[in-house]
Structures are given as C-alpha cells and as structure tokens.
UniProtKB/TrEMBL annotation:
Name by which UniProt lists this protein: YHS domain-containing protein
Superkingdom, taxonomy of origin: Bacteria
C-alpha cells in the first residue's frame, strides 16, 4: 500500500470510529471540555510534570495532588507538585487532554496515557486503537500541519459536548 492510500485508509478508519462514538454519544456525553470521567482526575492520574520534564508517562500519587480549573492532577513527588502550583498552565495538556490527531480532524477521542509527544514544552496526547497508532500518522503527515489545524478546530469546537451528535 502506498503512502497516499495508507493515509486515506487511516482517515477513513478514523471516520468509522467517529461514527461508532457518535452512536455512543448519550453514554459518553460530558458537561465539560476535558478528557476525563466523573472523577475529574486529569490524565487518568498520570503526572503532567513527568510527561513534560521527564518525557515519561508516570502515575502520580494521591498524596501529591493539586486542583486546577476543576480537575485534580496527581504528581510523583512534592517537587513536581510545587512546579505545577507555580505555573499550572505550563503543565496542562493541549486540547483538554483529548487526542491531538482527532482534534485536528474535528473530533474528541480519549487518549492512551502512554501515547504522547512533548513539542515546544507542550503536551499532546494520542489515541491508540485497532485502527492504528494516531501519533504515527500525525507525525508522518506533518505534526506542524496537524497542530495548526487542531489549534483552529479547538477554538471552534463545541467544548461543552463530547461525542454528542
């Protein structure tokens, strides 16, 4: 399969996945613009400071937590907690923690915590599912292009409805 057909296949599979999620919209609808469940724990408990400063997905500890914009963030230790408290905006994920590739295409998919990239000090998360590893497609097609499109889409997306038709 050549690169053009591969890219079309991945995008087609993403559209099919999106359709599946739309069908589940009433089950997954949330009242906020963050990729989290009712617990309001950001990043499934992974430390945003670890992602950005250590390049690792590391689960934080409940004893080192902070709340920012209604979400609870966990950290590995007191030093990470203090860094976050000093500048939380530096450490929050892009696009509310949704899959960066999906946002670039106008959708919101929950990411896989171990699939991420840190670009220019910003955390981008990605979905991995049976259709493929979205971070690989994002990079192959040009991360700059996808970041620019995701930034544009994020400004216009209905941030208070998730997976709603």
């Amino acid at each position: 399969m050549n690169a053009t057909n591969y890219n079309k296949s991945i995008k087609w599979l993403l559209v099919l996945s999106w359709s599946l999620f739309l069908g589940m919209g009433s089950l997954m609808a949330q009242s906020h613009s963050y990729s989290t469940d009712e617990s309001m724990i950001a990043l499934n408990g992974y430390s945003s400071v670890s992602y950005i400063e250590n390049g690792k997905a590391q689960l934080g500890k409940k004893e080192y937590k902070a709340t920012y914009d209604g979400l609870t963030y966990y950290f590995m230790n007191k030093q990470q907690l203090e860094k976050f408290k000093a500048n939380p905006v530096k450490y929050i994920p892009q696009y509310g923690g949704w899959c960066a590739f999906a946002v670039s295409l106008g959708g919101k998919f929950h990411p896989e915590p171990n699939s991420f990239r840190v670009i220019d000090g910003k955390l981008y998360l990605f979905t991995i599912n049976v259709e493929g590893d979205f971070v690989k497609v994002w990079e192959k097609e040009g991360k700059e292009k996808h970041i620019a499109q995701a930034n544009k889409n994020w400004q216009n997306m209905a941030k208070f409805q998730t997976f709603a038709p």
